[in-house]
Amino acid sequence: MPSTSVPGTAPLLVLKGLRRLHVGPVDLDVAAGECVSIMGASGAGKSVLLRAVADLDPHEGDAWLGGAACSAMPAPLWRRRVTYVAAESGWWADTVAAHFAPGVDLTALLPRVGLAPDLAGAPVARCSTGERQRLALLRALQPDNRVLLLDEPTSGLDEEARALVEQLLRQRLAEGAGLLLVTHDAAQAQRLAHRRYTLADGALQAEASRPTADALALEAGPR
Ligand SMILES: Nc1ncnc2c1ncn2[C@@H]1O[C@H](COP(=O)(O)OP(=O)(O)OP(=O)(O)O)[C@@H](O)[C@H]1O
Q1: Domain ABC transporter, which positions (predicted)?
Q2: 38, 84, 188, 218: least surrounded by Cβ within 10 Å?
């Protein structure tokens, strides 16, 4: 089903005819500062779709970022700009710090998602699942990142850590990033997403577009 982003704004990310395995063809636009959520049964193909958007697997169709086609861009550049954050990410070095660029101030960054600053020097192998999940999100926040493809970003987290991650995502939206959010948490989709979809039978089915819970709280004003 074709879908358009916020009226009057040029889309940041455009997907046309994207097809991989049993998923698609998918047409979808995401505007700058917009969060689009995708729910769906286990095995529906949500991760398959996000990985195709990140150009991590062979697929049909194409994607555009600010008018530039994925097919015309070197894959590493596309993936820095349109970045897949897996539920369980891969790690290539021993320590946490070795996965970040030398200039990144990890002592300031880690507490933003509830992680202790001294985790920077820890071996990744010693980090818990929830710690690795948050580290993978921080790792994706490179200067040239424009779109985050989030695969169940808070599935392993307690309430406090979940709230911190959602706060970080709201800030990325305020900075003009686009978010494609795969989640099993309907309340999270309601809180964050400007448009919500369900993936079923390989196709995105739109739910009624409503203001996010955040927007409604803003309209209601201070309590
Ligand atoms: N490379 C592949 N080759 C063949 N089948 C695959 C491949 N990758 C995934 N699949 C299959 O595609 C289906 C969808 O997988 P996917 O991981 O996208 O599901 P999902 O909707 O993200 O599920 P969950 O909510 O459980 O994470 C699964 O049946 C999976 O086995």
Answers
A1: 1-220
A2: 218
